[in-house]
Specification:
9 helices; 2 strands; single chain; two-stranded antiparallel ribbon
Length: 255
């Protein structure tokens, strides 16, 4: 026993609080502004008790689950059945590690995908890094530095990095700058499907179709002998004819 220890008995809570006071004194010299070490002893003690309770609960759940599995396996064996077919929590078919969990699509964002891929894109060379970095930004102020794109590995000697093919990007990992037109029309494009007039009427409804195909009015300024006034040109056979009539009226060539 150390000479600094007292022979008088102290409660464990008192000993823990004194130990915490010594830690706080050291904290003022080592990390006075650290947000990870609380200054309140009761808060630290509460966190310790909560973590201990979580560990005890996890251990009890694991023990209970294993016991349930043993009981189910023994019951299945007594009836001549395969035990693995009756344990959905323990017997399952693992997914391909190169696929995503929600949609089961190919992706690079998988924890164990690196060990299961047939190959991995090699690290870019110094020349490629300079081309995509300092040399790119030096050519124009509009250019920015980019990370080199992944390419197929090659064993051909003397082949330049620019001649190696790119690795195809999966649909789930496709990242690009979204243009305004894409935002406006991305929910309305149906691949290469062509929709005829009859099918369009059925999809949109007669009232909406009539509204889209109906007449529209454009207010224009008439320029003539009697001065400038406002008139109306009706669009009856499509938007192009209405715009043409508007241009004619605005230029004084039509009524």
């Amino acid at each position: 026993m150390s000479h600094s220890f007292s022979k008088s008995w102290k409660a464990p809570s008192v000993v823990a609080r004194e130990h915490w006071i010594r830690i706080l004194k050291s904290r003022d010299h080592l990390c006075p502004d650290s947000p990870f070490l609380p200054r309140i002893f009761d808060q630290t003690e509460h966190n310790r008790l909560m973590n201990s309770a979580r560990l005890d609960l996890a251990r009890s759940k694991a023990t209970s689950t294993s016991k349930d599995a043993q009981v189910m396996a023994s019951n299945a064996a007594s009836r001549g059945l395969d035990a693995s077919s009756l344990l959905p929590l323990h017997a399952h078919t693992p997914l391909d590690p190169t696929l995503s969990v929600p949609l089961c699509l190919p992706t690079i964002w998988a924890p164990s995908a690196e060990s299961k891929r047939p190959f991995t894109a090699p690290w870019p060379s110094i020349a490629e890094l300079k081309y995509e970095g300092d040399e790119r930004i030096a050519t124009s102020l509009d250019h920015r530095r980019f990370l080199p794109v992944p390419r197929f590995p090659t064993d051909v000697e003397g082949m330049g990095w620019a001649e190696v093919a790119f690795l195809p990007q999966t649909e789930l990992d496709r990242v690009h700058r979204v243009e305004e037109e894409e935002v406006l029309f991305q929910g309305f494009e149906v691949g290469e499907r062509e929709i005829g007039e009859d099918e369009g009427r059925e999809l949109l409804g007669e009232s909406l179709w009539a509204c889209l195909e109906g007449s529209h009015e454009f207010c224009v300024e008439k320029v003539g002998d009697q001065g400038v006034g406002k008139g109306t040109v009706e669009k009856k056979e499509g938007l192009e004819e209405g715009v043409g009539a508007w241009e004619q009226a605005a230029s004084g060539q039509g009524d």
